[in-house]
Amino acid sequence: IHWQSQKRSTFVNEFSEDNLSCEEIRARGFYPEVPLSKDENEFPIAYARTVYKDYHFQEMMFNVMYAPQNRYCFIIDNKATEKFHKKMKILGKCFKNVIVSDVEFDVDGAGHNMVRSFLYCMRLLLKEPSWKYVTTLQVDIKLKKYLAFFLTFFLIIQNKKEFSFKNFVFVHLHRYQFAANCFA
């Protein structure tokens, strides 16, 4: 038992309000500069995530999910504090594969405007379409092992798309909002 306790990972909370430079953010986590496997390199994934509070948690989850070939888009709920907005914007500026949207949506626990926010994030992600699939996240926690499973799953279903975004026109965005509100 003693031997196992010596191998246990521990989290030292070095986070403070003053440590929000890119150097400090990168020093707090492991952010590889190259893909960790051939499969990861050949199969980049995009993540669209809606966030609204607890910057420290968001940074830790981003670190767990981070891979340099992937793309990340954060939509901030309009109920988030100004301080949270500022921190997320700093995080976005530290990584070239991260987008923090300037457009916000009024999202709630019942899912109102969630689809709309994800669609907007996808629109931003399409500006750099180097990814193969996109996944949407709310408060999901993705672990490294789960990410490996996720990648394997996407490799298996490769080229079997549920839908595609060829010439996707956001003129019809009101249809999605109307459809979502019909079931509210």
UniProtKB/TrEMBL annotation:
PANTHER family xrefs: CORE-2_I-BRANCHING ENZYME, PROTEIN CBG11221
Q: Which Pfam families match?
A: Branch
Tell me, what is one Gene Ontology molecular-function annotation carried by this entry? Answer: glycosyltransferase activity
Q: Which domain of life is it from?
A: Eukaryota
Keywords, in A-Z order: Glycoprotein, Glycosyltransferase, Membrane, Transferase
Primary location group: membrane
Q: What is this protein called?
A: CRAL-TRIO domain-containing protein
Keyword hit for Transferase: yes
Q: Does the keyword Glycosyltransferase apply?
A: yes
| Cellular component terms (Gene Ontology) | membrane
Q: Which InterPro entries match?
A: Glyco_trans_14
UniProt topology in membrane: Single-pass type II membrane protein
What compartments host this protein? Membrane
